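WARN no homologs supplied; continuing
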Amino acid sequence: MSRVVVGMSGGVDSSVAAWLLKEQGYDVIGVTMQIWQDEDACSVEENGGCCGLSAVEDARRVAAALDIPYYVMNFKKEFKEQVIDYFTAEYLDGRTPNPCIACNRYVKWEALLDRSLSIGADYIATGHYARIEKLENGRYALRRASVPGKDQTYALYNLTQEQLKRTLMPDGDYSKDQIRKFAADLGLQVADKPDSQDICFVPDGDYASFIRETTGKEIPEGNFVTPDGKVLGRHRGIIHYTVGQRKGLGLALGYPAFVLEIRPETNEVVIGTYEESLTRTLKADRLNFMAIEDLTEPRRVFAKIRYNHKGAWCTVEKTGGDEITCTFEEPIRAVTPGQAVVLYDGEYVLGGGTIKPV
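OK structure emitted
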């Protein structure tokens, strides 16, 4: 019997994933990853989320109901180094990070998989809405979830071949309604638990305060400028802004204004019109290919430039050892350095990378 460690966040998705795998005959072990640094009782009760101690209690109750072993594993060090430190550094460098992608690759997979294999597991599993398939070329790739509205492949594009080979994602064949019904039929208390939406370690959404408190740095004010350098006003500090942002700028220019670029070296935030926020090209590095080993010639693909982007057609080509250039067929808006561009070949993830500054 194959043994699988299921990462249990205390939510309905991972809870049902554990049940589905047990039904399929696996020897299932439930594990909650203790990743948040310190929490007091008040913040736990108020915020919960996948990082909170409240998640541990929910997951423990589910494991007891499913009659599977359950453990809490400490990954605080890995989470701080790979997620929090990365998150703050990216903002200070004028980029907009995606901490969930970093957490998936380096904590939920790399760290959890290593520890799970060391205790005799054959696989790890999560409650993500995605599917894993071995292709004819012998490579493993993510396939979109069977219900497109819940597809989570964008946030998982960075997984390695070894990680994919050792991962199970049983929820990818079902809709969210079906998953909730499974939980309700089983009598699990988490059946109607709401999904967590915000970044788990900044539950109030105030990234700037979190960065200041975590790094101990005061972020100086600077100038809003036009692309050609004309000063338009003062900004509150670059960590308050992201490329594509329109709201919260505090500028009255007589036209809708958008953040076009963030220049940490001069402490400037570049402002422009909607038309100036459009582009047909982007470059990306920190590449990870999934369905193919490498990109050897230009290829027409479907690309997403953020999690909730509907996607757009482009031609992608390799323009460096660790760089791709995507040329889009129609102009796209808010190409944001630090975010991921994920490339799809039909339903399968071809690969992706991190969007570079202009």
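The radius of gyration is 21 Å.
OK
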